[in-house]
Amino acid sequence: MAFDIYLIIAGAVSALLLTAGLIAGLAARDDQSAWRIWPAPPAGSLKSFTFWTLFRTLNVVVLVLAGERVLMLTTADAWAPFRLVLAAIAVIAFAAYLYALWALGREATYCRASGLATGGVYRWTRNPQYATAIAAFSALGLAAWSPEATPLAAALVLVYALMAVAEEPWLEARYGRAYADYRADVPRFFNFRHAVSELAALAARKSQPLT
């Protein structure tokens, strides 16, 4: 239990500093502002080390605390079946996150530019890593449903969302009109319009008589 307290403190401090830094960077509206912590500062800099330490700390804290709470579920909990379903959704979303990393290439993720990706999974979302991480930690936080893990999971979801927003000016500056056109066509997180059109097309094909 004492170890959990240290985790909660580390997670809360990381969440507060990351959220404040990302909001300050967005408010600055200047890519060279000293307040901007994302897109990632130059590798090897103190700001880069601080950002990645806080970001990874918050991720690990949420995974450990939420994972503990899910593993402690018992049949005495009336909500146990629902929480287990949420935990399963979290696992599926984490698997989708790993696929999104593979689709882009680990060396190109988190603002390591290697060209504008618009095909494959990027037809469904402009930010597949953020979108799947948000879905995974949202489901995991709800599955854990504790006063320690759930608020920290919500804070991590907010951090991922702020990172996605903060990244967009950088992408537009790097890729120009190509990114502007892509942004106009594909939503930031989930392309429900594309999903509906794909399902409609599938239903239309199935309804066609066999010849």
Low-confidence stretches: none
Identify the overall geometry: flat
In total, how many beta strands? 0
Largest sheet: none
Instruction: Give the terminus-to-terminus CA distance.
Output: 67 Å
The total tally of domains equals 1
The succession of helices and strands, N to C, reads HHHHHHH
Structural class: mainly alpha
Residues in helix, %: 55-70%
Radius of gyration: 19 Å
Count of helical segments? 7
Mean pLDDT: 85
Beta-strand content bin: under 5%
GO cellular component, one term: endomembrane system
Protein name: CzcN domain-containing protein
Subcellular location: Endomembrane system
Transmembrane segments: 6-28, 49-67, 79-102
In short:
Keywords: Membrane, Transmembrane, Transmembrane helix. The chain has 211 residues and is mainly α.
Description:
The chain is an all-alpha fold and 211 residues long. It has one domain (2-207). The protein has 7 helices and no strands. It has helices at residues 2-28, 46-71, 80-104, 128-144, 149-175, 177-185, 192-207. Helix 1 runs parallel beside helix 5 and helix 3 runs antiparallel to helix 4. The radius of gyration is 19 Å and the shape is flat. The chain starts with a helix and ends with a helix. This is CzcN domain-containing protein. The chain crosses the membrane at residues 6-28, 49-67, 79-102. It comes from Hyphomicrobium denitrificans 1NES1.
